Amino acid sequence: MENIRNFSIIAHIDHGKSTLADRLIQFTGISNERNFQDQILDNLDIERERGITIKSNAISLPYRAKDGKDYTLNLIDTPGHVDFSYEVSRSLASCEGVLLLVDAAQGVQAQTLANLYLAMEHNLEIIPVINKIDLPAADIDRVLEEIDSELGLDPDTHIRASAKEGIGMEEILEAIVGRIPAPQGSPREPLAALIFDAQYDSYRGTIIHCRIFEGTIKAGDIIRFMSSDATYKVEEVGHFLLQRTKRNMLSAGEVGYIIAGVKTVSDVHTGDTITHHERPCTKPLPGFKEVKPVVFASIYPIASDDYQDLADSLEKYKLNDASFVYEKDSSAALGQGFRCGFLGLLHLDIVQERIEREFHLSIILSVPSVRYRFTLKDGRVLYVDNPTHYPDPMSIARGEEPYIRASMMLPERYLGTVMKLCMEKRGVNSNMNYTGPGRVELSYEMPLAEVIFDFYDRFKSVTQGYGSFDYDVIDYRDSNLVLMDILVNGEKVDALSQIVHRERARARALIACERLKDEIPRQMYKIAIQGAIGGEIIARSTISAFRKDVTAKCYGGDITRKRKLLEKQKEGKKRMKMIGQVSIPQSAFLAVLKSDND
Amino acid sequence: MTSPGLYIHIPVCLSKCGYCSFYSVAAPELIPRFIPAVIGEMAFYENHFRNFDTVYFGGGTPSVLPATSIEEILNAAHAIFGIDRHVEITLEANPGDLSLEYLHSLRALGINRLNIGVQSFDNGLLKFLGRRHTASEALRAVDQVRRAGFDNIGIDLIYAIHGQSIELWRQTLETAASFVPEHLSCYQLTLEPKTPLFLHYRREGFKLPGDDESMTFFTTTSTVLSQKGYDHYEVSNFSLSPSSRSRHNLKYWRHIPYLGLGPSAHSFSDGRRWWNIENAHDYITGIAGSRKVVSQSEDLITEQLALEALFLGLRTKDGIDLSKYKAEYGTDLLHDKKKTIAELKKNKLIEIKEGRLRPTLAGMAVADSLALI
């Protein structure tokens, strides 16, 4: 066990986390140039394109240190967005130390800090690495100063590196060996393994990624998930080289995988503890929390023929995303679809993109909603996350919406604008603390609905990326809620209905009307777009008609060409939804979902 | 009126006009080799077409042909296919080409309909369009055609030209109508890709009329000509009486068979459409070598025929015979497109009269979109 080190790399976006991981993998020699694909740990195309890690991932690096001993260095990659902060915390809980990566030109940034705080919460050894020292704009002295003043770390402990050029790799590996403590725990104790991720393999079922804290596990063992009490028989254990590599046993201190006939990733909960059925540990590892979706939206295929394909692809997608939930739904305007739950808007974005890209389906999303609580006059309590199920307004005695506590870290200079933003978002009960010179920790209680819409983007923009943000759902509070509908040419588009705070309704309706006006192509007749609460119109816009589009000449030689053009346009129309005799393109639906400031 | 039509494409002009995208070359020296070729092509279709009741010389500029060449073609067509006694024979003519003597010879050959490419009575606009005739030549030509005894003439005009006001267009219409032509074709100027005018536009970006202005031109044309007794029977076509509609062109809009001879000419018969190569030289040598000169063909499935019937029908004032449409294509528009049709009726774009789905004037202006119902 003294030859194992478990570590993670934490960094602000674009500070070179994936490149450093790749370089370490190359340096330790488990991959050669031929099978080396850039940024091995970012498995998904979307991850590569967005530059953020969505899923956790792990790899074991064999390393012979200068002391002559062979070590196994387990690198555990972490997701990079607030929607996935729980996954990050479980990954970090599996480590003893982190490499804190700072860009030599950009210096300390928002996520550097947010991640540092997370690492500190887990009492991890922190090794500051100044990356990209080869850049002409690198200013190492300034970065060192920031590491000292802003992070409160000893600048003498840093390593200078360029992952791109391969500079400093050996120093980093030596520091991992020398400074990060070996894992504690005993192979003789009852098994306690922390699940930090799970992935679906179409041949083997669910692959559980875990860190063994106590005991050992091997094929044939009967294991139990402590949160659900479900038991399984272990089929295979192993660790992660470039591919999964089978081993006889995993033992305290190690990171690896377990295959145990678990059908879907949904049966596995990140943060849960695995123990032996016969000889369980006395209590689960700390920090387990059931992750629940907080944002809900419906997905419909654009072409109703694609419904079955959509059903199949959601089923496949779900295999690999435990935090995604869905059930059947139908819309008067859009037909058969699915109601889905997400961790946040980024999660929703990712699901949408993956469905479209990996399964080649065009889909329409309804306006996302949080889960509201209504107490009816007859005393019944309803939870409503779908505007379609909004109760009869006359029957409602009380409406409530979920509130969160937002925790933000930011440089003092942005305090004014951030407080203004929070108040605009109906934030209350603020709390403020100076955590260091010029740095403020700010908290607010805010309606979740305000936060999921465009808060995060605007927060990042007003703090110029220097602010970090996290939130916890706290409770339900009274709210003056109304159902706001959108009508196109007099017909209600139920996918665009929203449950909103009464004071927000008009502004939301206006935005929706304007966006639709911009996105719906002109048609042969004038189209009214209206926002309404019940029978009352609260916003409107008009799309004027086009008046002339007919081809001047159409004789023998023009007919085939004209028909082909019309056939193409007909195909294009199939990619639109016909509502109220108006063809509405997918982009119009998406435009309404976009945050207010895009 | 189900006899087939014969179209002959004369791929030659004296000079090319900037806006025109029809296939032709400014090479009159090709004519002596072209005539035997087009006659040679007839042989390929000897067993497929019979008894044409319309013949249409289009182009290109058919009026560059000597009368003797036209005679050869007509004689051959008569001999090979047979020509109906009540045939309509149209020739497209450029105003600068029409001497009285030439006109008399055309009449003598049986050409009974002359379509004159006047385009405008304004010298500035004619120059902009790249026409080789002047306004006074156009006036003289129309007058001459009447004097030669033609009692079924058409005048082609173009509107919404850069620099043309509505007022100027109104005057053009008045001038044209003063000759009381049996037929008028008024086309909105269209920038066709690859034409010199299109390239000119891309280079200099002159102003084009917007949606509203185009519509004003369109409705003004319709109103002015209606007042003069013309029937706006197709998007761009007006006739003084039902009998003076272009019988040949109606075949295109009604899926009546037609044979097109000459480079780039299109033919349609029995649900198949085919068209010739767009190269006069290859066409001539191809026919000389007894090779087919068809470039492509397509066999239309019912769905395609139905779409064509819809967009072609909606270009015409008569619209679509709903029961015939249902019988031929299996689609009951009134039932299947009930909501859409109700919306279009409400917006006064279509009307249903005497079992026909007919576009209103506003509907005709958006006929292409109407076809997408």
**Biggest interface pair, counts:** A-B, 27 and 48 residues
Residue runs with pLDDT of under 50 for 5 or more positions of chain A: 33-42
Helix content of chain A: 25-40%
* Beta strand % of chain A: 25-35%
Mean pLDDT rating of chain B: 96
What percentage of amino acids of chain B are in beta strands?
Answer: 15-25%
Q: On the 0-100 scale, what is the average pLDDT of chain A? A: 88
User: Regions of chain B with pLDDT < 50 over 5+ consecutive residues?
Assistant: none
> If you consult CATH, what is the topology of the largest domain in chain B?
TIM Barrel
Proportion of residues in helical segments of chain B: 40-55%
Rg calculated over all Cα atoms of chain B: 21 Å
- The count of domains of chain B is 2
The number of helices of chain B is 16
Morphology call of chain A: globular
Tell me, what is the CATH class of the largest domain in chain B? Alpha Beta
Report the CATH topology name of the largest domain in chain A. Answer: Rossmann fold
The CATH architecture name of the largest domain in chain B reads Alpha-Beta Barrel
- List the strand order in the largest sheet of chain B: 7-8-6-5-4-3-2-1-9
Molecular shape of chain B: globular
For the record, the count of structural domains of chain A works out to 5
If you compute it from the alpha carbons, what radius of gyration of chain A comes out, rounded to the nearest whole angstrom?
27 Å
Structure characterization notes:
The complex is a heterodimer of chains A (598) and B (373). Chain A has 598 residues and is α+β, with helices and mostly antiparallel strands. Chain A is built from 13 helices and 33 strands. In chain A, strands 11-10-16-7-8-15-12-13 form an eight-stranded antiparallel sheet. In chain A, helix 9 (415-424) packs antiparallel against helix 10. Chain A is globular. Chain B is of the alpha/beta class. Chain B has two domains: 5-253, TIM Barrel (Alpha-Beta Barrel); 316-370, no CATH class. In chain B, helix 1 (31-42) runs parallel beside helix 2 (67-80) and helix 6 (166-178) packs parallel to helix 8 (211-227). The mean pLDDT of chain B is 96. The interface between A and B is large, with 27 and 48 residues.
